Every structure is written in C-alpha cells, then in structure tokens.
Amino acid sequence: MSSDLLTLSAVELLRLYRSKRASPVEAMRAVLKRIDELNPLLNCFCYLAPDALLMAKDAESRWMKGEPKGALDGVPVTIKDLLLTRGWPTLRGSRTVDPKGPWNDDAPAVARLREAGALLIGKTTTPEFGWKGVTDNPLTGITRNPWNPARTPGGSSGGAAAALAAGMGPLGLGTDGGGSIRIPCAFTGVFGLKPSFGRVPAWPLSPFGTVAHVGPMTRSVHDAALLLNVLARPDARDWHALPYEQRDYRVGIDEGVRGLRIAYSARLGYAQVDAEVEALVEQAAMRFVDLGALVEPVDPGFANVEPLFRTHWFAGAALLLKNFSPQQKALMDQGLVDVADQGAKIAMLEVLEAAQKRGALGVHMNQFHEKYDLLLTPALPLVAFEAGKEVADVVKEKRWTDWTPFSYPFNLTQQPAASVPCGLTAEGLPVGLQIVGPRYADALVLRAARAFESAQPFPMPDVSGPATS
Predict the structure, then answer these.
(1) Is residue 461 part of a domain?
(2) CATH number, domain with residue 195
(3) Active-site residue among 9, 23, 94, 156?
(4) pLDDT tens digits, residue range 450-465?
(5) What domain count does the chain have?
(6) In angstroms, rounded to a whole number, what is the distance separating the alpha carbons of residues 440 and 178?
(7) Which domain holds residue 8?
C-alpha cells in the first residue's frame, strides 16, 4: 500500500482519508521512505521537517474524528527554499545566508498551507537566490533529473519538480521569475502553473521584482486547482496582490475546450527549436483540434524580448548583491556575480525604457487575446541536458536566457502560463507544452490543461534507471 500511495494525487489521498482507507501517517511514511531512498541520488531536498511524522499524526487524529483542518489536511507538500518558512532556515541555496536566522515568518503561500492543514515535508533545492534555469549551487550541489540522473531537472524550482516526478510527495510550492516553474516541469514531466501576477500573494517581493510569481507544481491538473484555491487566499503583506476572488478553481475544470479559439506558435517567430521537440508539441497542439477547439498556426507578433528581460533580470541581480562584500561574493555562484556585475552597468534610463517597452508588450498581448482565447507553444526548445551546466551548448549559449525563449516573455506580460507534459523523445526524456492565457484567465488555462491531460495522460519515471555520469 505504501508504494501505491506515492503515485496518488492529493485529490485521491484526501478521498482515502475521508473513507479511512489510508491515513496521513501512512502517506508521510511512504514519502519519507522514498526520500531516504532517492534523495542521495537526486538531491531534491536541502532540509527535511524534523516533526513530519508528528504533524501527520495530528492530521490523522483530526481525520479519525471527522474534523479535517482544511482543504489539504494531511497532504504532504514541499516548499522551495526561496520561501520563508517559520522555524526552518531559508538559505536560498547560498553560503552567505546565516542558518541561525531568526526564522520567525511564513511567506504568504506557506502560511496558507499551514492553515489548510498541509504537511510540510521540507525545503527543496534552488540555484542561488533562484537566479538561473537549472538547479545547482555552492551550498547544496547539483540536483538531478529522475528520468536520467545525468541530466538537469531545470530550475529554478528544480528540486520541487524532481521530487514530484520521483514520488516524493504529490504537491510542490514553486516560484517563477522567468520560467522557474515551467522549465523544470517541462524537463521532468510534471504539471506547473505560473498564475497571473498577484494571484498568489508574495512577501517579501522577489529581488527580481514584478516578473516573479508563486504557484503550484503537481502531477495532476486537478491537484494544481486544489492547491491554487489555498495559495490564492489574501495576505495584506503583498500590495501587488490581485483582489481576492472567492472561487473554486476546480469548478468547470472538466468542461473541455470545444469552441475555443487557440493560437499555436511553434517558434514565437524567432526561436530555434529541436526538431523532435517541435514535432511532439505540434502533435499536442493538434490534439486540441480533436477536442473540439479551433487551432490556428500563428505567431503572437512580437520580436525577441530577451534584451528586455535581461534588463529587468540583470538589474534585479545587481540590486540583490548591492550590499554583499567581496568576501561574500567569493562564496557565491560566480555566474550570479557576473550577471549582477553586468546589471550594475545598466543605466537608470535603460531600466525606465525597459519598463515602458514591457508595458507595450503587455498591451500587445492583451490585444492578441481579443482574437485568441489561448496561445500554445513549446515550454522549452530542447530536452534536459547535462546536470551541473547552465547552458546546453557553451558555443551557442552564454546564459540560461539563451535556451528559454518561450518562458520569460510571459513573466514580462504577467499572464498565466502552464507547462503540461506532452510526450517523450526517443531518448526517453519529457517534453512540455506551454499553455498561455490572457491575464487573469487562470481558470481557463487550468481547464485547457485538464482537457489535454485527460486525452493524453503521462507516466512517472522509473527512477531505478540510468546512473549518474
């Protein structure tokens, strides 16, 4: 039974708790056993809750009385190590953060999880301060992909995605400032949603500013909707937060996509895409035709926005490292230090101009979605490459932004965007389909992802596969 519990969704676990055919203690024991077996290989966690089983026993007691605490009572969930968690060190993958704290606060999303009765398993790994699209750092080392541990799981929420794919809990809490939920979900074959900016309250604000979102990472779309219900509850500490909508994102999620007008862009008009990835994504896009949608091959019509994103991201890195000493910087990922040094050279007028261009991009996409309900693209133009590297090809690429052309445009526009697994390459590596909706249309993105997931389910990996190299 314990191994079976590892493959179940949060929705299925809650159903078993309700009928008393399984308990939170059984679920947590199974998760901890899997972590004990696989974390030495995959390196998904940098901290484990010392009282995990005690929390599970409390949840079990509540279920036995028929008095669950909230919507996620007894469900194991992981927390990315960028999000403050009361009583736990939040080191952000950095040797420059003092483990002693104090650690007196929960980030809004973590606070909502506690209120809902979720069982906090531990902290998942991230690159230092979440600065890049893969997951390794000087503090905790290299995190690996369950489909092939020689490959990266992506990042920056790489530990969360790898843990999900490997069965180390059904739910994960991630952040996405340029693709950090969608990149690792695409590389590891799980589902992730970057909600509309402000949908999930965040505090403190990311040093990278208003491109950064907090969102759910799961193995099923229903679980993501359930988790978003909890995460989207209000918190006064985020003054960017959207007005709270008291809605259930599960309602209408199975209504399908019949009659929707959907744009499919294989390359956004400028990106280079691996042929096998492009073929799988095109097949996935055409599946929406089978589901009754009107799918039109069309690019959204904006030029490559990497320079625009770099201005925002590199300037944010400069702000982040502004008060760090040379001695502290020597302890850091030197890629982050280099990006911050470049960001420090960006003039104020360049930042203001980038903000203005960002606004124009947002208007452009608002108008695009007057005609199209959704936009489909590859989540990434390639599959997972060698773990421990920032880029797949050092000759063609300098920074992680060179191989993530489909993700960061929609951080700039603050639209909801999801990655849903859509197939395996001949090499046995996952490919992700990105579903982008108009701002605030989070429910529509979930609905479309659910329709695709229902038509094309996706397996979990056999983690007893290839060894590291």
Answers:
(1) no
(2) 3.90.1300.10
(3) 156
(4) 999 999 999 999 876 3
(5) 1
(6) 18
(7) 2-455
Looking at the domain assignment, is residue 467 inside a domain?
A: no
d(C-alpha 344, C-alpha 363), whole Å: 29
Beta-ladder partners of 443: none
- What does the block give as tokens for 468? 């590291």
For 34-93, how does the pLDDT look when each residue is reduced to its tens digit (9 = 90+)? 999 999 999 999 999 999 999 999 999 999 999 999 999 999 999 999 999 999 999 999
CA 407 to chain centre: 11
| 265 tagged catalytic | no
Q: Are 230 and 116 in contact (CB under 8 A)?
A: yes
Does residue 90 lie within any of the structural domains? yes
Residue 145 belongs to some domain of the structure: yes
396 assigned to active site? no
Q: Give one DSSP letter per residue of 148-203, joined into a string.
A: BTTB---SSSHHHHHHHHTTS-SEEEEEESSSTTHHHHHHHT-EEEEPSTTSS--S
Kindly state the greatest CA–CA separation across the chain. Answer: 62
Cα three-residue angle 304-310-313, rounded to 5 degrees: 140
Query: Cβ contacts of residue 226 below 8 Å, gap of 6+?
Result: 10, 11, 71, 72, 249, 250
Q: Quick check: is 19 catalytic?
A: no
> Which of 9, 23, 80, 194 is an active site residue?
80
